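Training component of the fellowship. As part of building independent skills, the fellow (R.M.) carried out the full modelling exercise for a liganded target. The chosen ligand was magnesium ion. The inputs are recorded below so that the supervisory panel can assess the work.
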Amino acid sequence: MRINRVKKLWREGKPAVGGWLSIPHCVQAEVMAHTGLDWLCIDMQHGCIDYSDTVPMLTAISTTHVTPFVRVPWNEPAIIMKVLDAGAYGVIVPMVSNRAEAERAVAACRYPPAGMRSNGPNRVLLYAGADYQKHANDEVACVVMVETLEGIEKVDEIASTPGVDAIYIGPTDLALALGLPPVMDNDDPKHVATVNRILEACKRHKTVPGIHTTSSKFTQRYLDQGFQMVMLGADRVAMSNYMKAEVARLTGWTPMAPGSGANSGGY
Ligand code: 3PY
Ligand code: MG
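Fellow's submitted model of the complex:
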């Protein structure tokens, strides 16, 4: 089986930096896969992305050495198994709040006896190789998000759940859970303390710590703190920021007022 390059980096104690795909098309997925990142995540939770978009996006990513992840819309075994069958090498499961929910996510990612994943790999056999089922339980990454109040309180039981490879912090849901505005790159002391609390729990249980950002400044900060799965930038945001900055550089021409699509989020 083709190895999961990101899990190899984690096993070696190294970090992996990734990007986020919210636009439902294979071409921009391929463009993003040529930017030097270790992994890309196709966002089926908040991105405008459906299963029929996800499959060609996975195919586009597999023209490179970038490791493909999918954030599923919810902690549902059916969609977790279906994106793995199509070639995702890792899933990111949103809003996991306790041990039972973490176990549910793990079980969907692992073939018996470790879990309850149903046999039926399709496109992943072309990407991974014919011996996929033999090694999938070790190579597939099960990443659960901690971003709710209950999840913060129960972070130790989540981080110590067998089969959970990484905990990924969603900074804006985390902010809402703390009663703060949903700011992505967040300097609020309460937010910083909670991020550190989750990081420490990950270190205690030898689970990979991960977090979403929207800038190299915060990506670097979290890498320096020891996070090993850090998201640097999303396709939609990169496109929007770049064009707005270029528009602003021109003189002798009056640009139209930007639409309300001006964004501060990381999706
Ligand atoms: C959040 O900010 O809540 C996220 O889920 C980011 O991916
Ligand atoms: Mg979230």
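The panel noted the following from the submitted structure. Strands lie at 16-21, 39-43, 67-71, 90-93, 141-146, 166-169, 208-212, 229-234. The longest strand covers residues 16-21.
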